[in-house]
Amino acid sequence: MLSLVLAALFFTGIHLGIAGTAMRDRAIGILGENGYRAAFAVASIIGLGWPVVAYNRAPYFASWGMLEWWRPIAIILMLPACLLVVIGLTTPNLTSIAQEGRVEQPPQGIVRITRHPFLTGVALWALVHVIGNGDVASLVFFATWAIVALAGTVSIDAKRRRLLGGAWEPFAAQTSIVPFAAIAAGRNRFIPREIGLWRWAIALLATRRSSASHHSLCRFGHIPCMPTARLFARDAMRWQFTG
């Protein structure tokens, strides 16, 4: 359990203490852009792999226990979580890595719902498992993902604001962190066809794969969903958690 706690602190530290902060800017000043990216990539690999391994080996200590009534709710919530993650990963977005050149382009597709679809989906996925698993190891593991994902939305906004200055504000005004907030406020409107049928199809297949993983590859309780965890970890390396 100690290893899992330390891994969670390391994962949180590199993403909230370094990425998107002034410390990142100082590190780039010392190491250069390429040097920083290489160092952060190594730290990210460690930060993603260590918690998964530690969680896999952590002893089982029940907290509130498995919540049978939560299972149908979890199945329902996993659909928007997967939609946000998969569609977010495949949609060009100013908040994504190396997409600063899109600053003049209006938000489209899933970005109209939230400017951080991937992180919002990860946070929802993690919170679903925090509630449903009911053991200490799962609480540490999934709460860490939820905290880093939710705080990451604010961190990325701050990084883009520092980098782009006033050019960031029109995009921020048309979008929101909280899903549908900008649409509800009348600052934007959702156009489903912008997402594209192929993104919807991939997202639905990913949802089905996640459900199948839970039923056929995982045992509930101690290690409830490691295939899904690895899937999100792999995608995180390709997306927002790149410093």
End-to-end separation: 27 Å
Apparent shape: globular
Beta-strand proportion: under 5%
Helix tally equals 9
How many discrete structural domains? 1
Mean pLDDT: 84
Main beta-sheet strand count, sense and barrel state: none
**What class, by secondary structure content?**
mainly alpha
Beta-strand segment tally? 0
Unreliable residue stretches: 216-242
Task: Walk me through this protein's architecture.
The protein has one domain (62-237). The protein is 67% helix and 0% strand. The protein is built from nine helices and no strands. Helix 2 packs antiparallel against helix 9, helix 3 packs antiparallel against helix 4 and helix 3 packs across helix 8 (197-216).
Q: What's the quick description here?
A:
Helices cover 67% and strands 0% of the residues. It is mainly α and 243 residues long.
Topology, pairings included?
Layout: H1 2-18, H2 22-57, H3 70-89, H4 117-133, H5 136-164, H6 168-174, H7 181-184, H8 197-216, H9 226-237
Helix pairs in contact: 1-2, 1-5, 2-9, 3-4, 3-8, 4-5
Provide keyphrases for this structure.
243 residues; mainly alpha; disordered C terminus
